Amino acid sequence: MGRKWNNIKDKKASKDANTSRIYAKFGVEIYVAAKKGEPDPEANQALKFVLERAKTYNVPKHIIDRAIDKAKGNSDETFNELRYEGFGPNGSMVIVDALTNNVNRTAPEVRSAFGKNGGNMGVSGSVAYMFDSTAVIGVEGKNEEEVLELLMEADVDVRDIIEEDESVIVYADPDKFHEVQEAFKNAGVTEFTVAELTMLPQNEVTLEGDALVKFEKLIDVLEDLDDVQQVYHNVDLGE
């Protein structure tokens, strides 16, 4: 699959932990999910998914509780889910998912990030068709054969199973996310190194020299925007 998921997550968490930015973004995501349905994860699959992700990033309990309590209260703050697509240096492709309470702020910020770092915004659909929505779930303490066996016993079909460092990473269709997790939990696995719904590129590109420097700066600037939740791309960064 060309991705080192644990390394990517650890690098992102390390960068974001310095400013607690990742916690703030999870707070918004948890609030939005809880506001859409019941504030109980057992009755709200979207909220349950976000909380599973938050656990893999060690988001503090008080951040989670505060976001859910806000959703339970009288807050009428609303957020729009937006997706921007664009191009970076040398044909690289980028997808940006945002949650914003001010569309007029977010779009110019994303456009500026592209424009100032060797890229440009594209129209809706110009990039996304080259990516596949994918569930990525990682566990430790089991090997590839054991994971394959427990998934077969649970009758859960997945796309791929890959051993990475000390983890086993499972790639599956998005609608199989909870089935894969339940299969693991029924086998006694309760901790996950990765629990993501992501966009995987169908083909990756390699950048070098100035193009690579510009691209990495573009991704950093996009990820640092307060309204941006996720950034996906098709560049092999060798992680």
Automatic annotation (TrEMBL):
Signal peptide (from-to): none
Cited Pfam families: TACO1_YebC_N, Transcrip_reg
Species per Swiss-Prot/TrEMBL record: Bacillus benzoevorans
Lineage: Bacteria, Bacillati, Bacillota, Bacilli, Bacillales
Record family assignment: Belongs to the TACO1 family. YeeN subfamily.
Keywords: Cytoplasm, DNA-binding, Transcription, Transcription regulation
UniProt-listed GO biological process terms: regulation of DNA-templated transcription
Boundaries of every TACO1/YebC-like second and third domain copy: 80-235
GO CC terms of this entry: cytosol
Localization (cell): Cytoplasm
Transmembrane domains' residue ranges: none
Major site of localization recorded for this protein: cytoplasm
Name of this protein: Probable transcriptional regulatory protein HNR53_002102
Residues annotated as domain TACO1/YebC-like N-terminal: 3-74
A molecular function GO annotation: DNA binding
